[in-house]
Amino acid sequence: MMQFNRFVLDNGLRVLVHEDNSTPMAVVNVMYDVGARDEDPSKTGFAHLFEHLMFGGSIHIPEYDEPLQRAGGENNAYTTNDLTNYYCQLPAENIETAFWLESDRMLSLAFSKKSLDVQRKVVCEEFKEHYINKPYGDVWHKLRELAYTTHPYRWMTIGKELSHIEHAHLDDVKHFFFKHYRPVNAILVVAGNVKTEDIKRLAEKWFGDIPMGEKYNRHLPQEPKQQAARLIEVHADVPLDAFYKTWHMASRLEKGYYVTDLLSEILGGGASSRMFQALVKEKKLFSNLDCYHFGTVEKGLLAVEGKLVKGVKMEDVEKAVNEEIEKIKAEPVTEIELQKVKNKTESIIAFEDMTIMSRANSLAFYELLGNANLMNEELAKYHEVTSGDILACSQEILDEKNSNTMHYFSRN
User: Which residues pair with 27 in a beta bridge?
Assistant: First the structure.
């Protein structure tokens, strides 16, 4: 059971504290309730660009990393379609340095054309390196566009196209900051060798005076139920043909999420899974194969992907994948098979919660979902899933009409 204390400042900043005196370290994690799904469709990639800009200096601190490193700390950040997260770890006795740095960034970035030019260039290079010039780099750009017609999950965190980042203006950046990066849209989690009363005092001192901002309420266009299968063919200079297939699935807080998570493990979660055994080991159609989902807050995607063995035909692969899909829709999985993936899931959760950094991140995420204590209830939700649930879920979401397929052909 994960213990934590929670309080809210007058400006709306939610603060969670997890005390752990078994470590000399502390983690300060700031999560903002903004991700790529909140972008204007004509100005995508902003949430991620912002992650970079946040390291470009704030009003009183021109260089973020230097004072943190002097205090023995390290930091990083990441952006997803749903959220943006900044975190640092440092010796607990130097924790005030992290409060000073994070509060100054939240108070106001040092908006400058120079900083924007530098970070824009960095992000553009990242876009080119990972999504334009890298083999298979365009897969999820194309597959998201295929699977989503309406919802903003149809573009990736890096952005829909390079030009959106290239044409980002300082005014756009300022507007984005003051709309989303406010205390009322933020969650501060502190974990490690700390005392809640000290954190309360530090939170008031460093964050209490920051203007609240307006609560951001989402009104995102929802994806209509998919009524017909979609297929796309791509030809590119890649070493091997590849096969991708996705299905729409439940959102993060629905029971169907937990069922689908276990279903993905049964189908293709590792070397002992059904598809890996049948299609990689026995039939030797794929050189590797994975089944997974994106873990998104709103309705997401379950995916199967694999690289074909040289000389294998795409139609043979598709037929074999569909046979495995039909099998799982036809009869309940055995209790042994279900228990195996539940045990694996339990060990993954336990392993993830071993570090204070992971615990801090999880607390912030569950608070973002609406209830930090969900962290303590997750395991029970997995254990409640029955083989009947897996069967019903398979029949509902693994419907061909709900699918999006990509045949990715090598020109080589």
Answer: 89, 191
